[in-house]
Amino acid sequence: MSDIQSIQKKPPYGMIAILFIGAFVAILNETLLNIALPSIMKEFDVNATAVQWLSTGYMLVNGILIPASAFFIQRFNDKKLFITAMSLFTLGTFMASIAPAFGVLLVARMIQASGSAIMMPLLMNVMLTAFPVEKRGAAMGTFGLVMITAPAIGPTLSGWIIEHYTWRTLFDIVLPIAVLTVIVAIFKLKDVTPQRAIKLDVFSLVLSSIGFGGLLYGFSSAGDKGWDSPYVYGTIVVGAIALVTFILRQLRMDDPMLEFRIYKYPMFALSSAIMIVISVAMFSAMILMPIYVQTIRGISPFHSGLLMLPGAIVMGIMSPITGKLFDKYGARTLAVIGLTITVVTSFYFSRIGMDTPYSTLILLYTFRMFGMAMVMMPVMTNGLNQLPAKNNPHGTAMNNTLQQVSGAIGSALLITVMNRRTESSAKDLAEEAMANVDPNAAQPSAEAAAAAKLQIAHEAMLHGINFTFMISALIAGVALVLAFFMKRSKPAKEEDNKEVVVEPGQVAAE
Protein backbone atom coordinates (compact mmCIF):
# COMPACT_ATOMS: atom_id res chain seq x y z
CA MET A 1 0.00 0.00 0.00
CA SER A 2 3.05 2.28 -0.13
CA ASP A 3 2.00 3.77 -3.47
CA ILE A 4 -1.34 4.87 -2.06
CA GLN A 5 0.31 6.37 1.02
CA SER A 6 2.66 8.42 -1.14
CA ILE A 7 -0.27 9.60 -3.20
CA GLN A 8 -2.03 10.79 -0.04
CA LYS A 9 1.03 12.89 0.88
CA LYS A 10 0.92 14.55 -2.52
CA PRO A 11 -2.50 14.16 -4.19
CA PRO A 12 -2.54 13.96 -8.02
CA TYR A 13 -4.14 17.35 -8.63
CA GLY A 14 -3.60 17.20 -12.40
CA MET A 15 -5.41 13.89 -12.67
CA ILE A 16 -8.25 15.11 -10.45
CA ALA A 17 -8.63 18.22 -12.64
CA ILE A 18 -9.07 16.04 -15.74
CA LEU A 19 -11.69 13.90 -13.94
CA PHE A 20 -13.44 17.08 -12.74
CA ILE A 21 -13.82 18.43 -16.28
CA GLY A 22 -15.14 15.11 -17.57
CA ALA A 23 -17.63 14.76 -14.73
CA PHE A 24 -18.72 18.42 -15.03
CA VAL A 25 -19.67 18.24 -18.73
CA ALA A 26 -21.36 14.86 -18.17
CA ILE A 27 -23.55 16.12 -15.32
CA LEU A 28 -24.18 19.45 -17.04
CA ASN A 29 -25.47 17.54 -20.07
CA GLU A 30 -27.98 15.69 -17.90
CA THR A 31 -30.01 18.85 -17.20
CA LEU A 32 -29.01 20.88 -20.27
CA LEU A 33 -31.62 19.30 -22.54
CA ASN A 34 -34.74 19.78 -20.37
CA ILE A 35 -35.65 23.28 -21.58
CA ALA A 36 -34.93 22.23 -25.19
CA LEU A 37 -37.55 19.43 -25.19
CA PRO A 38 -40.34 21.57 -26.77
CA SER A 39 -38.01 22.53 -29.66
CA ILE A 40 -37.10 18.87 -30.21
CA MET A 41 -40.80 17.89 -30.17
CA LYS A 42 -41.47 20.41 -32.91
CA GLU A 43 -38.51 19.45 -35.12
CA PHE A 44 -39.07 15.67 -34.98
CA ASP A 45 -42.88 15.83 -34.64
CA VAL A 46 -43.04 13.67 -31.49
CA ASN A 47 -45.36 13.98 -28.47
CA ALA A 48 -44.45 14.88 -24.89
CA THR A 49 -44.44 11.26 -23.74
CA ALA A 50 -41.91 10.27 -26.41
CA VAL A 51 -39.61 13.26 -25.95
CA GLN A 52 -39.51 12.74 -22.18
CA TRP A 53 -37.56 9.54 -22.87
CA LEU A 54 -34.53 11.73 -23.66
CA SER A 55 -34.41 12.47 -19.92
CA THR A 56 -35.95 9.25 -18.59
CA GLY A 57 -33.72 7.04 -20.76
CA TYR A 58 -30.62 8.93 -19.64
CA MET A 59 -31.60 8.42 -16.01
CA LEU A 60 -32.44 4.75 -16.57
CA VAL A 61 -29.02 3.94 -18.06
CA ASN A 62 -27.39 5.78 -15.15
CA GLY A 63 -29.48 3.82 -12.68
CA ILE A 64 -28.53 0.52 -14.30
CA LEU A 65 -24.78 1.16 -14.68
CA ILE A 66 -23.96 3.06 -11.47
CA PRO A 67 -24.48 -0.03 -9.23
CA ALA A 68 -22.02 -1.91 -11.47
CA SER A 69 -19.48 0.93 -11.19
CA ALA A 70 -18.05 -0.60 -7.99
CA PHE A 71 -16.99 -3.66 -10.01
CA PHE A 72 -15.54 -1.60 -12.88
CA ILE A 73 -13.54 0.63 -10.51
CA GLN A 74 -12.05 -2.35 -8.69
CA ARG A 75 -11.38 -4.46 -11.79
CA PHE A 76 -10.00 -1.91 -14.31
CA ASN A 77 -7.40 0.79 -13.88
CA ASP A 78 -8.42 4.44 -13.64
CA LYS A 79 -6.93 5.58 -16.95
CA LYS A 80 -8.55 2.93 -19.15
CA LEU A 81 -11.88 3.25 -17.35
CA PHE A 82 -12.03 7.03 -17.63
CA ILE A 83 -10.94 7.11 -21.28
CA THR A 84 -13.55 4.45 -22.16
CA ALA A 85 -16.30 6.30 -20.28
CA MET A 86 -15.35 9.70 -21.73
CA SER A 87 -15.08 8.25 -25.24
CA LEU A 88 -18.59 6.81 -24.97
CA PHE A 89 -19.87 10.16 -23.75
CA THR A 90 -18.10 11.95 -26.62
CA LEU A 91 -19.51 9.52 -29.19
CA GLY A 92 -23.02 10.03 -27.84
CA THR A 93 -22.58 13.82 -27.91
CA PHE A 94 -21.45 13.74 -31.56
CA MET A 95 -24.35 11.48 -32.59
CA ALA A 96 -26.83 13.77 -30.82
CA SER A 97 -25.40 16.84 -32.53
CA ILE A 98 -26.00 15.42 -36.03
CA ALA A 99 -29.05 13.21 -35.25
CA PRO A 100 -31.27 13.05 -38.37
CA ALA A 101 -34.17 11.37 -36.51
CA PHE A 102 -35.57 11.18 -33.00
CA GLY A 103 -34.58 7.52 -32.61
CA VAL A 104 -30.93 8.37 -33.31
CA LEU A 105 -31.06 11.19 -30.74
CA LEU A 106 -32.52 8.81 -28.13
CA VAL A 107 -29.79 6.21 -28.76
CA ALA A 108 -27.17 8.99 -28.59
CA ARG A 109 -28.47 10.11 -25.18
CA MET A 110 -28.25 6.56 -23.84
CA ILE A 111 -24.67 6.21 -25.12
CA GLN A 112 -23.86 9.49 -23.37
CA ALA A 113 -25.38 8.13 -20.17
CA SER A 114 -23.36 4.91 -20.37
CA GLY A 115 -20.21 7.01 -20.15
CA SER A 116 -21.36 9.55 -17.56
CA ALA A 117 -22.62 6.82 -15.19
CA ILE A 118 -19.01 5.74 -14.51
CA MET A 119 -17.44 9.20 -14.18
CA MET A 120 -18.97 10.36 -10.90
CA PRO A 121 -18.24 7.17 -8.89
CA LEU A 122 -14.73 7.03 -10.40
CA LEU A 123 -13.97 10.64 -9.46
CA MET A 124 -15.32 10.19 -5.92
CA ASN A 125 -13.28 7.01 -5.43
CA VAL A 126 -10.07 8.68 -6.65
CA MET A 127 -10.72 11.57 -4.22
CA LEU A 128 -11.21 9.18 -1.30
CA THR A 129 -8.01 7.30 -2.21
CA ALA A 130 -5.91 10.40 -2.89
CA PHE A 131 -6.71 12.37 0.27
CA PRO A 132 -6.35 11.33 3.92
CA VAL A 133 -9.44 11.59 6.15
CA GLU A 134 -8.40 14.89 7.76
CA LYS A 135 -8.23 16.59 4.31
CA ARG A 136 -11.19 14.94 2.61
CA GLY A 137 -13.66 17.64 3.59
CA ALA A 138 -11.91 20.36 1.59
CA ALA A 139 -11.35 17.97 -1.33
CA MET A 140 -14.94 16.72 -1.40
CA GLY A 141 -16.16 20.31 -0.97
CA THR A 142 -14.40 21.20 -4.21
CA PHE A 143 -15.97 18.09 -5.71
CA GLY A 144 -19.32 19.64 -4.76
CA LEU A 145 -18.67 22.25 -7.47
CA VAL A 146 -19.19 19.47 -10.00
CA MET A 147 -21.97 17.58 -8.28
CA ILE A 148 -24.19 20.55 -7.45
CA THR A 149 -23.24 23.47 -9.70
CA ALA A 150 -23.37 21.66 -13.06
CA PRO A 151 -27.04 20.64 -12.87
CA ALA A 152 -27.95 24.00 -11.32
CA ILE A 153 -26.56 26.16 -14.14
CA GLY A 154 -27.89 23.78 -16.82
CA PRO A 155 -31.38 25.34 -17.10
CA THR A 156 -30.03 28.92 -17.28
CA LEU A 157 -27.42 28.12 -19.93
CA SER A 158 -29.89 26.01 -21.89
CA GLY A 159 -32.57 28.74 -21.78
CA TRP A 160 -30.16 31.34 -23.17
CA ILE A 161 -28.89 29.03 -25.94
CA ILE A 162 -32.38 27.93 -27.02
CA GLU A 163 -33.48 31.56 -27.16
CA HIS A 164 -30.63 32.47 -29.53
CA TYR A 165 -29.63 29.23 -31.30
CA THR A 166 -30.95 25.70 -32.02
CA TRP A 167 -31.04 22.80 -29.55
CA ARG A 168 -28.13 21.16 -31.42
CA THR A 169 -25.88 23.95 -30.16
CA LEU A 170 -26.20 22.40 -26.69
CA PHE A 171 -24.24 19.38 -27.95
CA ASP A 172 -21.94 21.43 -30.20
CA ILE A 173 -20.68 23.34 -27.15
CA VAL A 174 -20.02 20.20 -25.09
CA LEU A 175 -18.39 18.19 -27.92
CA PRO A 176 -15.00 20.01 -28.23
CA ILE A 177 -14.60 20.02 -24.44
CA ALA A 178 -15.26 16.26 -24.35
CA VAL A 179 -12.82 15.57 -27.21
CA LEU A 180 -10.09 17.68 -25.58
CA THR A 181 -10.64 15.90 -22.25
CA VAL A 182 -10.15 12.49 -23.91
CA ILE A 183 -6.93 13.64 -25.62
CA VAL A 184 -5.48 15.10 -22.41
CA ALA A 185 -6.48 11.97 -20.46
CA ILE A 186 -4.62 9.72 -22.92
CA PHE A 187 -1.35 11.54 -22.26
CA LYS A 188 -1.69 12.80 -18.69
CA LEU A 189 -3.93 10.44 -16.71
CA LYS A 190 -2.35 8.05 -14.20
CA ASP A 191 -3.66 5.21 -12.03
CA VAL A 192 -4.37 5.91 -8.39
CA THR A 193 -6.67 3.21 -7.05
CA PRO A 194 -5.55 -0.42 -6.68
CA GLN A 195 -7.26 -3.13 -8.75
CA ARG A 196 -8.46 -6.52 -7.60
CA ALA A 197 -8.74 -9.78 -9.54
CA ILE A 198 -12.52 -10.13 -9.33
CA LYS A 199 -15.07 -11.51 -11.75
CA LEU A 200 -18.44 -10.05 -12.66
CA ASP A 201 -21.46 -12.05 -11.54
CA VAL A 202 -23.68 -11.73 -14.63
CA PHE A 203 -26.85 -12.77 -12.78
CA SER A 204 -26.26 -10.00 -10.23
CA LEU A 205 -25.89 -7.48 -13.06
CA VAL A 206 -29.18 -8.67 -14.60
CA LEU A 207 -31.00 -8.46 -11.25
CA SER A 208 -29.52 -5.03 -10.57
CA SER A 209 -30.56 -3.74 -14.00
CA ILE A 210 -34.12 -5.02 -13.65
CA GLY A 211 -34.38 -3.89 -10.02
CA PHE A 212 -33.05 -0.35 -10.20
CA GLY A 213 -34.21 0.12 -13.80
CA GLY A 214 -37.74 -1.02 -12.96
CA LEU A 215 -38.04 1.28 -9.95
CA LEU A 216 -36.63 4.26 -11.85
CA TYR A 217 -38.89 3.72 -14.85
CA GLY A 218 -42.00 3.07 -12.75
CA PHE A 219 -41.69 6.10 -10.50
CA SER A 220 -40.51 8.36 -13.34
CA SER A 221 -43.56 7.41 -15.43
CA ALA A 222 -46.08 7.89 -12.60
CA GLY A 223 -46.43 11.64 -13.13
CA ASP A 224 -47.28 11.14 -16.81
CA LYS A 225 -49.17 7.83 -16.95
CA GLY A 226 -50.76 7.87 -13.47
CA TRP A 227 -50.41 5.42 -10.60
CA ASP A 228 -53.21 3.19 -11.92
CA SER A 229 -51.28 2.42 -15.12
CA PRO A 230 -50.05 -1.21 -15.35
CA TYR A 231 -46.81 0.17 -16.84
CA VAL A 232 -46.24 2.06 -13.58
CA TYR A 233 -47.24 -0.37 -10.83
CA GLY A 234 -46.15 -3.38 -12.91
CA THR A 235 -42.58 -2.14 -13.38
CA ILE A 236 -42.38 -1.00 -9.73
CA VAL A 237 -43.45 -4.45 -8.47
CA VAL A 238 -41.08 -6.28 -10.84
CA GLY A 239 -38.27 -3.87 -9.92
CA ALA A 240 -38.89 -4.32 -6.19
CA ILE A 241 -38.87 -8.13 -6.46
CA ALA A 242 -35.67 -8.10 -8.54
CA LEU A 243 -34.04 -5.64 -6.13
CA VAL A 244 -34.85 -7.76 -3.04
CA THR A 245 -33.48 -10.83 -4.85
CA PHE A 246 -30.37 -8.87 -5.83
CA ILE A 247 -29.75 -7.73 -2.24
CA LEU A 248 -30.20 -11.24 -0.82
CA ARG A 249 -27.80 -12.61 -3.43
CA GLN A 250 -25.16 -9.96 -2.63
CA LEU A 251 -25.38 -10.75 1.09
CA ARG A 252 -24.64 -14.42 0.39
CA MET A 253 -21.65 -13.73 -1.88
CA ASP A 254 -18.05 -13.50 -0.66
CA ASP A 255 -17.22 -10.94 -3.36
CA PRO A 256 -20.49 -9.16 -4.24
CA MET A 257 -21.00 -6.78 -7.15
CA LEU A 258 -22.42 -4.21 -4.70
CA GLU A 259 -21.58 -4.63 -1.03
CA PHE A 260 -24.69 -4.08 1.13
CA ARG A 261 -22.84 -5.06 4.29
CA ILE A 262 -21.42 -1.52 4.40
CA TYR A 263 -24.67 -0.59 6.15
CA LYS A 264 -23.34 -2.20 9.33
CA TYR A 265 -21.27 1.01 9.71
CA PRO A 266 -23.70 3.32 11.56
CA MET A 267 -22.50 6.69 10.24
CA PHE A 268 -22.61 5.49 6.63
CA ALA A 269 -26.13 4.11 7.17
CA LEU A 270 -27.22 7.40 8.78
CA SER A 271 -25.66 9.50 6.00
CA SER A 272 -27.46 7.38 3.38
CA ALA A 273 -30.80 7.91 5.14
CA ILE A 274 -30.24 11.68 5.32
CA MET A 275 -29.11 11.84 1.67
CA ILE A 276 -32.26 10.00 0.53
CA VAL A 277 -34.49 12.45 2.41
CA ILE A 278 -32.50 15.47 1.14
CA SER A 279 -32.70 14.26 -2.48
CA VAL A 280 -36.50 14.04 -2.23
CA ALA A 281 -36.73 17.51 -0.67
CA MET A 282 -34.26 19.06 -3.14
CA PHE A 283 -36.27 17.92 -6.15
CA SER A 284 -39.32 19.83 -4.91
CA ALA A 285 -37.83 23.21 -5.84
CA MET A 286 -36.28 21.89 -9.07
CA ILE A 287 -39.68 20.60 -10.25
CA LEU A 288 -42.13 23.08 -8.74
CA MET A 289 -40.35 26.38 -9.43
CA PRO A 290 -40.33 26.10 -13.26
CA ILE A 291 -44.04 25.10 -13.18
CA TYR A 292 -44.91 28.07 -10.97
CA VAL A 293 -42.73 30.60 -12.80
CA GLN A 294 -43.59 29.58 -16.37
CA THR A 295 -47.16 28.24 -16.17
CA ILE A 296 -48.70 30.46 -13.49
CA ARG A 297 -46.62 33.63 -13.81
CA GLY A 298 -45.95 33.42 -17.57
CA ILE A 299 -42.22 34.12 -17.22
CA SER A 300 -39.98 33.00 -20.13
CA PRO A 301 -37.87 29.81 -19.93
CA PHE A 302 -34.68 31.88 -19.97
CA HIS A 303 -35.76 34.02 -17.01
CA SER A 304 -37.03 30.89 -15.31
CA GLY A 305 -33.54 29.43 -15.56
CA LEU A 306 -31.99 32.78 -14.62
CA LEU A 307 -33.92 32.71 -11.36
CA MET A 308 -31.91 29.64 -10.32
CA LEU A 309 -28.49 31.03 -11.34
CA PRO A 310 -27.66 32.98 -8.14
CA GLY A 311 -28.39 29.84 -6.14
CA ALA A 312 -26.01 27.89 -8.35
CA ILE A 313 -23.30 30.53 -7.90
CA VAL A 314 -23.75 30.50 -4.12
CA MET A 315 -23.48 26.70 -4.07
CA GLY A 316 -20.34 26.87 -6.19
CA ILE A 317 -18.75 29.41 -3.82
CA MET A 318 -19.87 27.61 -0.67
CA SER A 319 -18.88 24.04 -1.58
CA PRO A 320 -15.09 24.44 -1.00
CA ILE A 321 -15.73 26.64 2.07
CA THR A 322 -18.14 24.07 3.50
CA GLY A 323 -15.52 21.36 2.91
CA LYS A 324 -12.93 23.22 4.99
CA LEU A 325 -15.51 23.88 7.72
CA PHE A 326 -16.29 20.14 7.70
CA ASP A 327 -12.63 19.30 8.33
CA LYS A 328 -12.65 21.69 11.30
CA TYR A 329 -16.09 21.24 12.89
CA GLY A 330 -17.48 17.97 11.52
CA ALA A 331 -20.72 17.26 9.65
CA ARG A 332 -23.36 17.60 12.38
CA THR A 333 -23.06 21.37 12.95
CA LEU A 334 -23.10 22.12 9.22
CA ALA A 335 -25.97 19.70 8.53
CA VAL A 336 -28.15 21.10 11.33
CA ILE A 337 -27.62 24.71 10.17
CA GLY A 338 -28.09 23.84 6.49
CA LEU A 339 -31.22 21.75 7.04
CA THR A 340 -32.74 24.43 9.27
CA ILE A 341 -32.31 26.92 6.41
CA THR A 342 -33.82 24.37 3.99
CA VAL A 343 -36.87 23.79 6.22
CA VAL A 344 -37.47 27.52 6.74
CA THR A 345 -37.12 28.45 3.04
CA SER A 346 -39.33 25.51 2.01
CA PHE A 347 -41.98 26.82 4.42
CA TYR A 348 -41.77 30.31 2.90
CA PHE A 349 -42.10 28.79 -0.58
CA SER A 350 -45.38 27.27 0.60
CA ARG A 351 -46.68 30.86 1.12
CA ILE A 352 -45.85 32.30 -2.34
CA GLY A 353 -48.75 33.88 -4.22
CA MET A 354 -49.78 35.11 -7.64
CA ASP A 355 -47.91 38.40 -7.23
CA THR A 356 -44.83 37.40 -5.23
CA PRO A 357 -41.98 39.61 -6.54
CA TYR A 358 -39.42 37.95 -8.83
CA SER A 359 -36.64 39.27 -6.59
CA THR A 360 -38.21 37.54 -3.57
CA LEU A 361 -38.29 34.24 -5.45
CA ILE A 362 -34.59 34.60 -6.35
CA LEU A 363 -33.71 35.41 -2.73
CA LEU A 364 -35.65 32.44 -1.33
CA TYR A 365 -34.23 30.01 -3.88
CA THR A 366 -30.68 31.29 -3.30
CA PHE A 367 -30.98 30.89 0.47
CA ARG A 368 -32.39 27.40 -0.04
CA MET A 369 -29.39 26.45 -2.17
CA PHE A 370 -27.09 27.98 0.46
CA GLY A 371 -28.62 25.60 2.99
CA MET A 372 -28.27 22.62 0.65
CA ALA A 373 -24.59 23.47 0.07
CA MET A 374 -23.95 23.09 3.79
CA VAL A 375 -25.55 19.66 3.92
CA MET A 376 -24.90 17.41 0.94
CA MET A 377 -21.14 16.97 0.71
CA PRO A 378 -20.41 17.04 4.50
CA VAL A 379 -23.07 14.39 5.17
CA MET A 380 -21.90 12.19 2.29
CA THR A 381 -18.21 12.56 3.18
CA ASN A 382 -18.82 11.81 6.86
CA GLY A 383 -20.51 8.55 5.93
CA LEU A 384 -17.82 7.50 3.46
CA ASN A 385 -15.10 8.31 5.99
CA GLN A 386 -16.24 5.43 8.22
CA LEU A 387 -15.80 2.81 5.50
CA PRO A 388 -12.58 0.77 5.16
CA ALA A 389 -10.64 1.80 2.02
CA LYS A 390 -11.53 -1.42 0.20
CA ASN A 391 -15.23 -0.52 0.48
CA ASN A 392 -14.89 2.98 -1.02
CA PRO A 393 -16.04 1.89 -4.51
CA HIS A 394 -19.13 0.26 -2.98
CA GLY A 395 -19.87 3.33 -0.86
CA THR A 396 -19.64 5.75 -3.78
CA ALA A 397 -21.69 3.45 -6.03
CA MET A 398 -24.35 3.05 -3.33
CA ASN A 399 -24.62 6.81 -2.72
CA ASN A 400 -24.91 7.65 -6.41
CA THR A 401 -27.48 4.90 -6.98
CA LEU A 402 -29.61 5.98 -4.02
CA GLN A 403 -29.57 9.59 -5.24
CA GLN A 404 -30.88 8.49 -8.66
CA VAL A 405 -33.59 6.25 -7.20
CA SER A 406 -34.69 8.60 -4.40
CA GLY A 407 -34.73 11.50 -6.88
CA ALA A 408 -37.06 9.58 -9.19
CA ILE A 409 -39.29 8.42 -6.33
CA GLY A 410 -39.34 11.90 -4.79
CA SER A 411 -40.22 13.54 -8.10
CA ALA A 412 -43.08 11.10 -8.72
CA LEU A 413 -44.50 11.47 -5.22
CA LEU A 414 -44.27 15.27 -5.22
CA ILE A 415 -45.89 15.55 -8.66
CA THR A 416 -48.68 13.24 -7.46
CA VAL A 417 -49.22 15.31 -4.32
CA MET A 418 -49.32 18.51 -6.39
CA ASN A 419 -51.75 17.07 -8.96
CA ARG A 420 -54.14 15.70 -6.31
CA ARG A 421 -54.14 18.97 -4.38
CA THR A 422 -54.60 20.96 -7.61
CA GLU A 423 -57.60 18.82 -8.63
CA SER A 424 -59.33 19.13 -5.26
CA SER A 425 -58.63 22.89 -5.12
CA ALA A 426 -59.97 23.38 -8.67
CA LYS A 427 -63.19 21.61 -7.71
CA ASP A 428 -63.61 23.73 -4.56
CA LEU A 429 -62.86 27.00 -6.39
CA ALA A 430 -65.27 26.14 -9.21
CA GLU A 431 -68.06 25.38 -6.71
CA GLU A 432 -67.33 28.62 -4.85
CA ALA A 433 -67.44 30.59 -8.11
CA MET A 434 -70.75 28.99 -9.09
CA ALA A 435 -72.23 29.78 -5.65
CA ASN A 436 -71.31 33.47 -6.07
CA VAL A 437 -72.89 33.81 -9.53
CA ASP A 438 -75.99 36.04 -9.60
CA PRO A 439 -78.71 34.03 -11.42
CA ASN A 440 -80.30 37.27 -12.67
CA ALA A 441 -77.06 38.63 -14.14
CA ALA A 442 -76.32 38.46 -17.87
CA GLN A 443 -74.30 35.50 -19.09
CA PRO A 444 -70.58 36.32 -19.41
CA SER A 445 -69.00 36.35 -22.86
CA ALA A 446 -66.98 33.33 -24.06
CA GLU A 447 -63.77 35.28 -23.55
CA ALA A 448 -64.69 36.21 -19.96
CA ALA A 449 -65.72 32.64 -19.18
CA ALA A 450 -62.43 31.31 -20.57
CA ALA A 451 -60.45 33.88 -18.56
CA ALA A 452 -62.32 32.94 -15.38
CA LYS A 453 -61.67 29.24 -16.02
CA LEU A 454 -57.94 29.92 -16.56
CA GLN A 455 -57.83 32.00 -13.38
CA ILE A 456 -59.34 29.12 -11.39
CA ALA A 457 -56.86 26.66 -12.96
CA HIS A 458 -53.90 28.87 -12.02
CA GLU A 459 -55.16 29.43 -8.46
CA ALA A 460 -55.74 25.69 -8.03
CA MET A 461 -52.23 24.91 -9.31
CA LEU A 462 -50.79 27.49 -6.91
CA HIS A 463 -52.59 25.79 -4.03
CA GLY A 464 -51.11 22.48 -5.19
CA ILE A 465 -47.58 23.94 -5.36
CA ASN A 466 -47.92 25.60 -1.93
CA PHE A 467 -49.12 22.37 -0.35
CA THR A 468 -46.30 20.37 -1.95
CA PHE A 469 -43.68 22.80 -0.66
CA MET A 470 -45.16 22.34 2.82
CA ILE A 471 -44.75 18.57 2.43
CA SER A 472 -41.18 19.22 1.28
CA ALA A 473 -40.55 21.27 4.43
CA LEU A 474 -41.78 18.36 6.57
CA ILE A 475 -39.54 15.92 4.65
CA ALA A 476 -36.53 18.19 5.18
CA GLY A 477 -37.55 18.32 8.86
CA VAL A 478 -37.08 14.54 9.06
CA ALA A 479 -33.52 14.93 7.77
CA LEU A 480 -32.94 17.71 10.33
CA VAL A 481 -33.91 15.38 13.18
CA LEU A 482 -31.62 12.64 11.84
CA ALA A 483 -28.72 15.12 11.55
CA PHE A 484 -28.61 15.51 15.36
CA PHE A 485 -27.48 11.88 15.63
CA MET A 486 -24.39 12.36 13.46
CA LYS A 487 -20.89 11.89 14.88
CA ARG A 488 -17.47 12.54 13.34
CA SER A 489 -16.37 9.39 11.49
CA LYS A 490 -13.05 7.61 11.46
CA PRO A 491 -12.19 4.78 9.06
CA ALA A 492 -13.05 1.34 10.37
CA LYS A 493 -10.23 -1.18 10.55
CA GLU A 494 -9.68 -3.25 7.43
CA GLU A 495 -11.16 -6.71 7.79
CA ASP A 496 -8.95 -9.72 7.21
CA ASN A 497 -9.47 -11.13 3.75
CA LYS A 498 -7.74 -13.25 1.18
CA GLU A 499 -8.50 -11.14 -1.85
CA VAL A 500 -5.84 -10.35 -4.41
CA VAL A 501 -4.95 -6.66 -4.46
CA VAL A 502 -3.15 -5.27 -7.48
CA GLU A 503 -1.33 -1.99 -7.04
CA PRO A 504 -2.04 0.92 -9.41
CA GLY A 505 -0.50 0.50 -12.84
CA GLN A 506 -0.38 -3.28 -12.71
CA VAL A 507 -2.73 -5.59 -14.56
CA ALA A 508 -5.04 -7.72 -12.47
CA ALA A 509 -4.45 -11.39 -13.14
CA GLU A 510 -7.29 -13.83 -13.22
As a percent range, the share of helical residues equals: over 70%
Radius of gyration, Cα only, in angstroms?
24 Å
Q: Order of helices and strands, N to C?
A: HHHHHHHHHHEHHHHHHHHHE
Q: How many distinct helices?
A: 19
CATH class: Mainly Alpha
Q: Given the C-alpha coordinates, what overall shape results?
A: globular
**Please, how many domains?**
1
Quaternary structure: single chain
The percent range for strand residues is under 5%
Q: What name does CATH use for the topology?
A: Growth Hormone, Chain: A
Q: Give the CATH H-level superfamily.
A: MFS general substrate transporter like domains
Mean pLDDT: 81
- Second-tier CATH architecture: Up-down Bundle
How does this model look, in words?
With about 500 residues, the chain is an all-alpha fold. The protein has one domain: Up-down Bundle (Growth Hormone, Chain: A). The protein has 19 helices and two strands. Strands 1-2 form a two-stranded antiparallel ribbon. α15 (about 330-350) packs antiparallel against α19 (about 445-485). The longest helix has about 45 residues, at about 390-435. The two termini are about 20 Å apart. Mean pLDDT is about 80; it is low at about 1-10 and about 495-510.
Task: List its traits.
mainly alpha; 19 helices; two-stranded antiparallel ribbon; 2 strands; Growth Hormone, Chain: A; single chain; globular; 78% helix; disordered N terminus; disordered C terminus; 510 residues
